[in-house]
């Protein structure tokens, strides 16, 4: 077994800040919050991220009341990035227990029920089960890049980009590789869908997460029927006469009733037996969808960038793209609206590793620094770097990167003899490197004239004010907004979706079409949409810090990106030479 170097600290800035806030800013017990917790007038969101499982409890107005967390690691076993299901449940239980302890510390009470609950997780990948509910092969996460032949075949067959990490690409690759488990597959799902299934017994998935399993038809809100038929013609003989739709979770839009916590599910989350069954759950979603909610970017012409272990941009489309691009995934918002997604496997992990090295250096000098202090100093140094990072290049490729056609990664620092090696330039190059591959993908959307009125950013990278946000503005050439809740992350986003479902009107049959908050009217006189709910109930009055691109930074980053593109040949050579 091996683990990815530096992986544990990828979301470090957000987690450390959250822990600091819990200790230093924990408010005195608030009577209203205490009453809401005791009455179950709350919503709980849990997200299984790449390096941390997080939980956030929110009150009736979606203000966070308590939080919990648990660090975990992916494993690289038999050349597959994976997590064990045992680690999923031990991690969820530890995270939930941490949340209870925080609620008691802050408010003097431990919740035993909630008004609603939601589960989110890293998107895509491959979790396959047989008819008895037994797992057939280890979980293959989004980070695996072994599905190239299947993704290429399906992209051509279906006429849309099928990324390497999508569940349908994993299934088809297993067929191409003649894996023995394929005839026994009875159910495919994502990590969020799996946890939801075990908690409720329901085999369902939020439309945003489902769009990373198989293409969605935004007109119907379900899997594209024509593309399902095309896949079945290709592979039905390997599925025992069943259609692929028989294996996939049912698709639900935001606001839909997605089942209730069973007694078994309650014990899985809380072995102590204190948690009550019967709590309603919202549709399980992926981290991309919760990121859109957490940044209030679910309306057409809005977008967001999420930076953590991976980095991705989501832009809600007002019209279809003119053609297929391998750099762009077509997914949906949690409400089912079409979204262009530029997803890069490698985000802030390598930057976090360098921050850890400098923290060790400070300790070696006898001046140990807290992680937040080290980050603040290094980010501040980056501001003093030359606009083009002094000729330095940083490649953050810990794993393969589909956008640049690399099946594996090798983190590199590259410079010419005439470059200026300094701490400010090194750190600016590292932060630029987090955005490098993302910029290459966003160029595709720019060439398609995709309009973006507002771009929001969230994730630990943006908690140090005025640095990564400024450099992202240079990388995109657009203003970047960071809100007060930017550091709350996807666990808060899924808690908000749980609150939305709690306030929504369920339609007969559970399709979710037109679901909306009870008692609120939309602009057309009907019930409010998810976007209207966010505007009115969650983000009303929220302050935004908006940073405009600095012309000198834009010019410097442009020069950096040109060298970055040319230097990809060095990265490719490293993957071929260094094993």
TrEMBL record:
Transmembrane segments: none annotated. Residues 304-501 form the Carbohydrate kinase FGGY C-terminal domain. GO terms for molecular function: kinase activity. It comes from Zhihengliuella alba. This is FGGY-family carbohydrate kinase. InterPro entries: ATPase_NBD, FGGY_C, FGGY_Carb_Kinase, FGGY_N. Residues 1-26, 507-527 are annotated as: Disordered. Residues 1-14 have a biased composition (Basic and acidic residues). Keywords: Carbohydrate metabolism, Kinase, Transferase, Xylose metabolism. Residues 15-26 have a biased composition (Low complexity). Pfam families: FGGY_C, FGGY_N. Belongs to the FGGY kinase family. Residues 44-268 form the Carbohydrate kinase FGGY N-terminal domain.
